[in-house]
Amino acid sequence: MTRVLVVEDDAPIRRGLVDALQISGYDTIEAKDGPEGMDRAVNGGCDLLLLDLVLPGGDGFSILEEVRSTRPTLPVIILTARGAEDDRVRGLKLGADDYVVKPFSIKELLARVEAVLRRSAERPLDVDCLSLTGGHVDFKRREVSFENGEREELSDREIELLRYLVANRGRVISRDEILARVWRLNPEGLATRAIDMHVVRLRRKLRDDSGEPRVLLAVRGKGYMLGNS
To answer: If we measure between CA atoms, which residue out of 89, 97, 94 comes closest to residue 66?
Structure first.
């Protein structure tokens, strides 16, 4: 059974959400403040997170950032009274899957939950580590470590890109798929060399020879795939 974590400080709203989810066949867990929400989002074993932004003892943005660091494939829907564009944009950039502004109807929310769960089923499984010749990538620490003691810190974009390639090992990933699935941008009509630039920087940090790469392979006219490193 799909388990939904509801992080909401308003007790009547939280109770209404939990009741509606349970009636619709979902298992639920609850959190009423920032610290409790953080703990249950990271350690509670939920399959989807409904997250309020304004919470006692913390805020939803902090929880969202930690979730994307520790559980990057967990689907998240933000629930908030904030309707400002800047908040919506910030939430989406931090990795929220959807954004619902209060007041909302339960029927609409349940439809969004179903849609987000359908999309999340297409995501690759999470990965923690990638072995390299003479080193390894630690995705949780966001760094590359080598046997000689050298380390390289990886950016969020580099981690996201590498994680997706690792999780889809053996398959060529197009630039459009990377834009849509990894960076959540609409690739239609979008001309950018950003992905290629990230690959160049990532190869340098992985000590992957750009002349004869073994980790990040370019497939002419198709995209990129993970090599056997």
So the answer is: 94
Cα torsion angle, 99, 85, 36, 104, sign: negative
Sheet order of strands, 151-153 included: 129-132, 135-138, 143-146, 151-153
- What share of the chain has pLDDT > 90, as a percent? 44
Contacts of residues 191-200 at CB distance under 8 Å and 24 or more positions apart, as own/partner, are 195/161, 195/224, 198/157, 198/158, 198/161, 199/161, 199/224
* Tokens found for residue 4: 């939904």
Contact 75, 2 (CB under 8 A): no
Q: Give pTM, 2 decimals.
A: 0.57
The tokens for 15 are: 């109770």
| 106 Cβ contact partners less than 8 Å away, ≥ 6 residues apart | 16, 17, 20
Structure tokens at 48: 């989807």
**Cα–Cα distance measured from residue 133 to residue 206, given in angstroms and rounded to the nearest whole number:** 10
Q: Is 59 exposed, middle or buried (0-12, 13-18, 19+ CB in 10 A)?
A: middle
Domains annotated for the chain, with CATH where assigned, are 3-120 (3.40.50.2300), 129-226 (1.10.10.10)
Q: How is 28-40 classified by DSSP, letter by letter?
A: EEEE-SHHHHHHH
Q: How far apart are CA 9 and CA 210, in angstroms?
A: 51
Lowest mean pLDDT among 85-89, 128-132, 176-180, 202-206: 85-89
